[in-house]
Amino acid sequence: MSGRAARPIDGANPSRRRCLASLIGAPGLLLAPLPARAGGQLEEPLADSVRTALSSAIANSAPPVPTFASTPARLAYLRWLSAMSDRLYSRKKDFTERLDFLGTVWYESRRAGLDTSLVLGLIQVESAFRKFAVSSVGARGYMQVMPFWTRVIGDGDAGKLFHMQTNLRFGCVILRHYLDRERGDLFMALGRYNGSRGKSPYPNAVFGAQKRWAHAA
Predict the structure, then answer these.
(1) pTM attached to this predicted model
(2) 8 Å CB contact between 161 and 167
(3) Which domains does the chain show, CATH number per domain?
(4) For 94-117, how does the pLDDT look when each residue is reduced to its tens digit (9 = 90+)?
């Protein structure tokens, strides 16, 4: 996957920036500090077809630029971005960095067919929104991806897991893979993501954190 920086979600379009700026209010909900959890996914044998599909999903390096079927859909996204920006302010003070991160989470979660609030909850639990977090077992970045995944379905460069879009792409693709393996059972998929399949503390922590990021359309 390309290591280039993801493009800011509002780009350089002045009218779009003004529209978004008008939606962003003063800093709102503050998040209480939470310890990062080790993202100890276990390396398991993959069928060739699964490995190929996952590698293809990772390799597509399209920038996280959303497209919308209608003006209402675009406005709904901007309202979501405004609300999430308020909630994330305590963790990411820089406006551009915050929007870039949220836009990429939105893009990558939807690309993988995942609930965006779930992915934000997982990031909160895994890394407390720290880009360069490293767990005791070596998991890296926002979604605490284990380095072996870059060898199994990537180009082998584990350093890229500290690149925002790369880390979010890997994390979302891996969680989608686990969800498919568990036939849609999110509780079991989250346990597998954390290396604690069948145990409740980690999935319950993610579900609890997800509530902070829920947003009515």
Answers:
(1) 0.80
(2) yes
(3) 45-60+68-213 (1.10.530)
(4) 999 999 999 999 999 999 999 999
